[in-house]
Design goal:
Layout: H1 2-76, H2 82-100, H3 108-137, H4 143-146, H5 170-181, H6 198-210, H7 214-228, H8 233-260, H9 268-288, H10 295-325, H11 339-353, H12 355-366, H13 372-393, H14 399-418, H15 422-426, H16 428-455, H17 486-507, H18 515-545, H19 558-565, H20 574-578
Length: about 575
């Protein structure tokens, strides 16, 4: 048995040695295989990157193919196959957009530049084709063909020379016949442009407008008229005037209707938009509607421009007056920023989007050469707003809330001005002056809201008048309650608790919407209240704590007060403050 056991032990040791050798060999094999695994992983990642690169390359190559196809069609010109030409332009635009978004593509700038140049050439050819189609199909109608537009009963007889009528009765008979069927006749106007050509002209016009060639398109209509009546300038002007007067007059009458409508502050921006457009169109109007025959159109356009400027100027005055006299009863019970304030500030911000237009407008009426008029108007509007806010602040019964309301609103005005272009116009002096006004109202709020409760924490009036006093010992000096009446101290603590709870309940419902202003106001209150409370508790607390139910009088620690101050000006409702 001993020998068997020894043999078993020997075999076990041999097996352990063999297994240890295997473990060592496996570890060595893993070490040897690790570079192969790393290379395999790298090869797999390389294959993935190659696949992605190939796909990206295929997309880029497909766009290059589209570009070459579009280029070939564009070089042929639009005359033979306009539909494919327009399709090629669309593909070219798509290519410009594609390569323009590929910032990491080395040659994208060059491709975009070349494609944009080709697009400009394509649009130029379209413009020529548009002009050619108009010249080819907008031919004047022969006078004799105009009679074909009339019903048979109204056409002159072929034997009447010059179509002058017969003074022996034919003319009268024709007139009677005309009157009897006037309501029933149907006129057939001539087709000035073949119907099949109109869609082509529409597509060409659309492409030119999308390419930013709208002015050239309008100058083109005038050019066609001039070419048709070449050598007859007065006739060309008269024809163009008669063709366009009704449409232009209808358009201008729309602007006149707006300019003459009842003024309101909201319409000012519409008026400024229209005034700006009319100013921009002035040179084009002068070019398109040249000559004596179109003088009425030019005069009407100029009159509309002046009427729009005048109405806009008057609307400014109306707005200033409306702001000062605004009597809205919108209740702002929490002292936050009034809707009128945000409305006026947003209105002024929008005005600065029209700064250049307003400069033109003021120069036209007041002859100014700088931005002083806009600054003056803006200051008057701000002044009118502050006058109105002063009036609204008097609606509050609590003086503290009055000053909180004015602090909030003027701070909103100052902050908005500092973050807008109005700061450069109104100047740093205006901003600093109104920041001081904000601080003054904050100080007035503290004085009105916290003066009484701070009196509860003063030592005045706490001296004992007789034997009812008790000394808690203390350390003397500031920590001593020597000479203080326990009853008076208890009464002071009770009064403080009631007043602070009332302030907490009320002012937690008030709002200071700006987070920085809210925190700075809380800090300003804490800097006054907390040292006074700590000093009072330290000095007179032992006097109360030595009696019965001290927690009834010293209800709050300094940390409790600080936490509750953090709930002030959050605009909470009544139920939240009670909880």
């Amino acid at each position: 048995m001993r020998e068997s056991l020894q043999k078993s032990q020997t075999i076990t040791d041999n097996v352990v040695t063999i297994l240890g050798s295997f473990d060592h060999r496996l570890s060595a094999l893993e070490t040897a295989m690790r570079p192969t695994q790393i290379r395999t992983h790298s090869i797999r990642k390389a294959h993935e990157n190659i696949d992605k690169t190939l796909k990206a390359a295929e997309i880029i190559l497909s766009h290059f193919d589209q570009y070459r196809q579009a280029e070939a069609k564009i070089l042929k010109g639009p005359h033979e196959d306009l539909e494919n030409y327009l399709e090629a332009i669309a593909k070219l635009r798509s290519n410009i957009q594609f390569f323009g978004s590929k910032n990491n593509f080395k040659n994208s700038d060059g491709v975009v530049s070349h494609a944009s140049s080709l697009l400009n050439k394509a649009i130029s050819k379209l413009q020529d084709e548009f002009n050619q189609l108009l010249l080819s199909y907008s031919k004047p109608v022969e006078p004799e063909r105009l009679f074909d537009c009339l019903p048979n009963s109204m056409r002159p007889s072929s034997g009447s020379p010059g179509h002058e009528g017969d003074h022996n009765g034919k003319s009268n008979h024709h007139s009677e016949s005309h009157n009897s069927i006037a309501d029933a006749v149907v006129y057939t106007p001539p087709a000035l442009i073949p119907p099949r050509i109109l869609p082509l002209l529409h597509d060409l016009a659309q492409q030119m407008i999308e390419a930013g060639h709208r002015p050239q398109l309008l100058t083109m209509y005038r050019k066609v008229c001039d070419q048709i009546f070449e050598g007859f300038d007065s006739l060309a002007e008269q024809c163009f005037a008669e063709v366009t007067t009704n449409s232009v007059s209808m358009l201008l009458s729309f602007g006149e209707a707006i300019a003459k409508s009842k003024r309101s502050p909201e319409k000012l921006f519409v008026l400024l938009d229209m005034y700006e457009i009319m100013q921009e169109l002035h040179s084009e109007i002068e070019t398109l509607f040249k000559g004596k025959a179109c003088a009425a159109i030019r005069d009407a356009a100029m009159a509309l421009t002046k009427r729009l400027a005048q109405t806009a100027q008057e609307t400014f005055g109306d707005f200033e007056e409306a702001v000062e006299k605004d009597a809205t009863k919108t209740a702002v019970t929490d002292g936050t920023v009034h809707p009128l304030t945000s409305y006026v500030i947003n209105y002024v911000k929008f005005l600065f989007d029209y700064r250049s237009t307003l400069k033109q407008l003021f120069q036209e009426f007041e002859g100014g050469t700088d931005s002083s008029q806009l600054a003056t108007v803006t200051m008057r509007i701000m002044q009118a707003l502050q006058i109105n806010l002063d009036g609204k602040s008097k609606q509050y019964k609590d003086p503290a809330l009055t000053h909180l309301f004015l602090m909030n609103n003027i701070h909103y005005i100052v902050r908005s001005v500092r973050r807008s272009e109005a700061k450069d116009l109104l100047g740093d002096d205006w901003v600093q002056r109104h920041r001081r006004i904000v601080q003054q109202h904050a100080n007035q709020y503290k004085r009105n809201a916290w003066a009484k409760i701070l009196q509860c924490l003063s030592i005045q009036g706490l001296a004992s008048s007789g034997g009812g006093s008790s000394n808690a010992g203390g350390d003397g000096g500031a920590g001593s309650s020597s000479g203080a009446s326990r009853a008076l101290v208890k009464e002071r603590f009770k009064t403080f608790n009631v007043m602070f709870e009332e302030l907490h309940q009320k002012q937690s419902q008030w709002t200071v919407p700006d987070s920085e202003l809210r925190e700075s106001l809380r800090l300003a209150v804490a800097e006054v209240l907390m040292p006074a409370y700590r000093s009072f508790v330290k000095r007179f607390g032992p006097l109360v704590e030595s009696g019965k139910n001290p927690q009834k009088y010293i209800k709050y620690t300094a940390e409790d007060l600080d936490r509750m101050l953090g709930e002030f000006f959050e605009g909470k409702n009544m139920n939240e403050t009670k909880r």
